[in-house]
Design a protein that fits this description.
60s Ribosomal Protein L30, Chain: A; seven-stranded mixed sheet; six-stranded mixed sheet; globular
Amino acid sequence: MKQRTQTHCEIIAESFGSLWSRAIPKAGWSEFLLGSTPASGASPARWLADLDDFLAQTGATLVELDGFGDELLMDEMRAALAASPFAAFPVSLMINDSNRGPLAGGVLVRAVLGVAVEPVLRHGATIGFRFEDQNAAYCYLGGLVPDDGSQDGAGQTTQVMASIKDALLDSGMVFRDVVRTWYYLGGILSWYDDFNRARTEFFMKHDVFSLRMPASTGIGIANATGKLVLAKVHAMRPKHDGFVVSVAGSPLQGSAYAYGSAFSRALEFSSPEGRTLHISGSASIDPAGETEYVGDIKAQIRRTLEVVAAILQEAGMEWSDAVRGIAYFRHAKDMVLWEAARQSLGLPLQVEIVVHADVCRDDLLFELELEAATS
């Protein structure tokens, strides 16, 4: 384990109407992570109204907006978006199968204050945002789907990745600047190998492997457009040697690339002001790439938490440094198990949402992604 002595980031966690809000100080600016779940009792219209009030009162700029839920909840979200100031925003809406389990899904928001934000356009529509601080240039893209939904999964994957490349070029970046990706794949279990092949071929063509693979989540959930792929991307281009993007160690697992998945287990962004750790979607997989505890959801949750805890510890962080996460459950009936796990870790409610989705293998029942920060 790397030995590091750093103070914890001063992170302010509080509520704003129906939303929780966490403020993370950066280099002369602030990042806000907000969210809410159906368990709050508020509707999507209320979430968006509170978000509009939050942006108006703080002066922050919205740069990322994601919604998760069943078809009924996401229908409400679409209607609320159409009647809100965010109608033209590049929203990522993911739709899981309806279930009779616990209330799941919710809304996740990222906003920034203190930097000049510019839209990233494609075909005249906003698909993301670009901004800079003294350490780096940043580009966040969202709601990316293929133009041609008639192609197979591999073809739609390649289309989306080409769109990412083109948008980054327009923003003064290249695909090798990508540090975090999310791929929401409808019907993932029937074509995940095709997705991995298309991603690897694209990475080889664009020389991604010579630098590093992004941290990533690839999860099985449909999106509001009906296309097989919806993607989100964070890219960063450092301005000096004091801002470092590096692959973080995962002591309990081997490289995902060894079994055909081209992503890093975690990436760390380190600057003079602090560090951020993006932990990829993690599951109960052993160092050889085999699924552990097949059929045992409680054991898979426990092992996944051990894997994530080891990544945090290797980076000199703790569960208390977590600022955002998503817990994915293959079976809706199992989602009730998360609350006990959350409490055992001491995670505040203002960290994660729980989502009903297919994990990338039919014998994996749980997956967790996490973002953590320290000063």
